[in-house]
Amino acid sequence: MSGAALAVVVVVVFFLALYLLQHYGDLRKQQRMVLFGTLLSWYLCFLIVFILPLDVSTIFTVLLMLSLASRVFECVVKVCEEPWSYIPDGVLPVLWRVVYWTSQFLTWLLLPFMQSYARSGAFSMVGKIKTALIENAVYYGTYLLIFISLLIYVAAHPQWKLTWADLQTIGITAANTWGLFLLVLLLGYGLVEIPRSYWLSSSHGYLLAKTYFKTAKMATEKAAAEENLADVMEEVAAVHESVKHNHSLRKCVDTILTKCPPEYQEEMGRNVESSSVLPTKSGLVGLHKKVISAVQRHGQTRVQWSVLLDQAFHLEDAAKSQSSPVRHFVHSFPSAHSHSWIRRFIYTPTLEWYWECVLRQGFYRLLAVLLCLLSAAVVWSECTFFSTHPVLSLFAVFIQLAEKQYNYICIEMACFISIFFLCVCVYSTVFRIRVFNYFYLVPHHQTDAYSLQCSGMLFCRLTPPLCLNFLGLIHMDSAISHQDRIQTSYTSIMGSMRVLSFISDGFYIYYPMLVLLLCLATFYNFGSRCLNLLGFHQYITDDDLTSDLVDEGRELIRRGIFMCICLSCFVFQAWREQYRVHETTGRSRAGYTDLGDNQNSPVAGIKKSGREENSCNYGVRLLFLLLTATETEMTLDFQQGRAVDCPVQETK
């Protein structure tokens, strides 16, 4: 079984990274270079996290064999039998070198270049490369200056002899210091927000109010995105009219037109005044970049709007089902996946009712309590891991207890749960971060190339210091614990941090203690309140502005449903008339039984009413999604007090 665990981890982690990329990116439309760079960076970072527990258990196996080498041979064979996850000597050092240096090459050199390349509005490969080099000149120069400064600091001490290994250690230390600085900030947020989010999510009322809040914000963003897209399309239409087909820039204009939505392409040239001023090549490059950004943002808001509507409908149905005496979850607006085989045979309406109305709240609160205990253990260990006598770090205590029992499975599970929880706290914060519209990971295949590659850069910079911090928590890093013991293969690749003592003995030990203050600030919503003051609205339960946005979102949902019900009356009436015509025609041609002849039959009435209700629900849902996604002005009509005629009497 030697190396079996490593092979399983390599395959499983690849499919995990591929699934996440498919969830956030668009595998069919985005550039292959962007997808490859993002997938490789995510894969390498996840691989480090999943293989590190195997590295730790392998070291404990070696230590156990050395400690029992003087005993009786039979005892050694019995106790020191290699676990199934044992990795042969020489495999991990090579693997760590390949994984680590490839990820560092991606995050510091290739991905920043690919970001500028993918976002460039140039029309040729040479133009995009030129733009990327110019934009990254300052970026590369800054990091080169930092490296030279550290190099001068080391060279100023004559007792140190600089070797190639020392230069590598200086570079690794600089990268890990930058990553640890950001790591603690993200970790302090995730340690509090993740348990709290599960506790609050156990209440449907909280989730519904927050969904209303998001709906109000998204309505504003969607209107702004539609307005921005319309303005950009006007510029494109003007350029389309001014540049004739025999002009040298016509090919560039045609390239821009291919990036426009189909509905705008059909209207190009209609009611647009031709401009006598011809655009320049640089102007078309800028317009091309604006078109790509506007179209991407418009698509994101439409998809996010539809998702929020689905969430609001589902949560409202859950609130109704809780007070219903029937143990059957009823969907007001059935979706397309509601008739899948999973919904029919596995996740039935009855099972869904028990989960949503009975089990969900207890399960989420129990999970929140467990996560809260893990968070408390992490905070305590981050503030005390430098103490080796006595051992105060809880993670180090658990690992040492498992080591005394020679229990490799417990060692691997304790390591995996610990580092996995740390990664979830850090990575989930990265997925939640939104820096205006420049960096924003949007699910449902809506994330742009710039954000995908930026996330890959962040993961590659955060994962190595995260793993070193974890090894420090369990006292497996001699640079922090100052214990003379065999190091893991991962630590040996990092080199001796004692080359820069002020970092290994100062920054790496005392800076993680800041996580306690960050947790307190997150618990009292200090960051959210500051963003609220700056005009970036955040959901805070005791804030008046939050209450106003919740009410606004609730009204948007109700007005949209009312509009679509009124409009669907016309559609449903026409469908019913057409259905009656086809039904009558079918009977006259093929004949029917006595039950089919009887229009007053209760069975026929039930079937007919079921078909009509189902079709009406689908019509309301479809019209609602289409209307709210394309016609924002319709909502403004209600705000201005305009009336909508609804043929209620005709459809009774």
UniProtKB/TrEMBL annotation:
<dbReference type="Pfam" id="PF04791">
    <property type="entry name" value="LMBR1"/>
</dbReference>
<dbReference type="GO" id="GO:0071875">
    <property type="term" value="P:adrenergic receptor signaling pathway"/>
</dbReference>
<keyword id="KW-0812">Transmembrane</keyword>
<feature type="transmembrane region" description="Helical">
    <location>
        <begin position="363"/>
        <end position="380"/>
    </location>
</feature>
<comment type="similarity">
    <text>Belongs to the LIMR family.</text>
</comment>
<dbReference type="GO" id="GO:0016020">
    <property type="term" value="C:membrane"/>
</dbReference>
<protein>
    <submittedName>
        <fullName>LMBR1 domain containing 2a</fullName>
    </submittedName>
</protein>
<feature type="transmembrane region" description="Helical">
    <location>
        <begin position="137"/>
        <end position="156"/>
    </location>
</feature>
<keyword id="KW-0175">Coiled coil</keyword>
<feature type="transmembrane region" description="Helical">
    <location>
        <begin position="507"/>
        <end position="526"/>
    </location>
</feature>
<feature type="transmembrane region" description="Helical">
    <location>
        <begin position="33"/>
        <end position="54"/>
    </location>
</feature>
<keyword id="KW-1133">Transmembrane helix</keyword>
<feature type="transmembrane region" description="Helical">
    <location>
        <begin position="409"/>
        <end position="430"/>
    </location>
</feature>
<dbReference type="InterPro" id="IPR006876">
    <property type="entry name" value="LMBR1-like_membr_prot"/>
</dbReference>
<feature type="transmembrane region" description="Helical">
    <location>
        <begin position="168"/>
        <end position="192"/>
    </location>
</feature>
<feature type="transmembrane region" description="Helical">
    <location>
        <begin position="98"/>
        <end position="117"/>
    </location>
</feature>
<dbReference type="InterPro" id="IPR051584">
    <property type="entry name" value="GPCR-associated_LMBR1"/>
</dbReference>
<feature type="transmembrane region" description="Helical">
    <location>
        <begin position="6"/>
        <end position="21"/>
    </location>
</feature>
<feature type="coiled-coil region">
    <location>
        <begin position="215"/>
        <end position="242"/>
    </location>
</feature>
<keyword id="KW-0472">Membrane</keyword>
